[in-house]
Amino acid sequence: MSELKIRALTEKDLDAVVEIDRKVLGKPRAEYWKRKIGLADIYPRPALVAEIDGDVVGFILGYVSGWEFGVPDTVGWIDTIGVDPDYQHRGIGKRLFKELVENFKRTGTVAQPEAKNISIKGVNVVYTLVKWNDWSLLRFFHEVGFQKGEMISLELKL
What we know:
By secondary structure, the protein is an alpha+beta fold. The chain contains four helices and seven strands.
């Protein structure tokens, strides 16, 4: 594999993110990703991409909590991670995760979509949500150090 480069996500990466998402989920969601990447001004949302030979092969989006649900602003969230299926099982997701965690741990400026840099407090815990039966994703998060947390997901079907 050629050299893997991790950098801040920019608006020019939108098409690549949409294509990776399409390969993983089976349908294109360009409008969804335009909105999701555009949310950077609400909360600090560090976002990174992985490149090989100038091609985006993976991405990760996170955000820093804004005191919702009593969760302090020193909590980071892994929102979305995606790796092109042709490049999975090569450590790309782990590299993206590691770099995002480093962004979270630093007190100061983090890279965000559209090259907006914002200041955050140092994050001291990271959360994410995973379907209980998504074994491959659960295995990935276990391998990078996640454990069962104190919060419980609740839902009400309508």
